[in-house]
Fold this sequence. Notes:
Layout: E1 5-15, E2 23-31, E3 35-39, H1 46-53, E4 59-66, E5 72-75, H2 87-98, H3 102-115, H4 131-145, E6 149-153, H5 161-177, E7 180-184, H6 188-194, E8 197-202, E9 205-210, H7 212-219, H8 226-236
Parallel strand pairs: 3-7, 3-8, 5-6, 6-7
Antiparallel strand pairs: 1-2, 1-4, 8-9
Amino acid sequence: MVNSVKLSVHIEQAGYEEEKPTIENIAFTVGAGELVGLIGPNGAGKSTTIKTILGLTRHVTGEINWNETPKYAYIPEQPSFYDELTLWEHITALGTFLQEDESVFYRRANRLMEQFSLEHAVHEYPGTFSKGMQQKLMLIHAFLMKPDLYIIDEPFIGLDPIANRLFLDMLKEEQQRGAGILLCTHVLDTAEKICDRFLLLTNGSLVMQGTLEELRMKTGLPEGSLLDCFYEAVKGGAL
């Protein structure tokens, strides 16, 4: 599955104030076709890690290395839109930016809007949408880009069960296409089923990483769930 590295992260320190690091000693890779789960409690440093990868953290010591021609899609926890643009105008603006064949792009866009049940709101403003509808538009935008790497922050909040299943199926298709995926989530039962590897963060540091089997070995829990392993790693501060 994994044939090349899409993202290599080596953060020695990073934060928002000089000499006051929020995160330290975080190193990992995301390979082509690989889904890596970024797991941690509130305040563990997950959002700061993502912001550092995206170049949004001011004080950084370390290196973030992308694929030679990085094309990524970022899906934030809180959807973000232009208040003055309708749903369809957001789509057309993206199509202009991507400079793809119009007929192919809009055929894909219409199919995605139908799949996510947003075709009825095509001329409405996303600011009036529910959180779930806004999240669906963010997903549509990301899937339309067909990036080399997805960086996704808490995507399941607000999605109905059908949209959730559709989202997971599309992630699987993108993996098969060769895209790398970094997924930050608190929904550990879902993460356990879909992720290839896990990064366990607490108190601003990476305390453990690996496949579920590797986490089980490291924590001494041969039948443990992801939640069990995470609890043990955080409780013991395992490395």
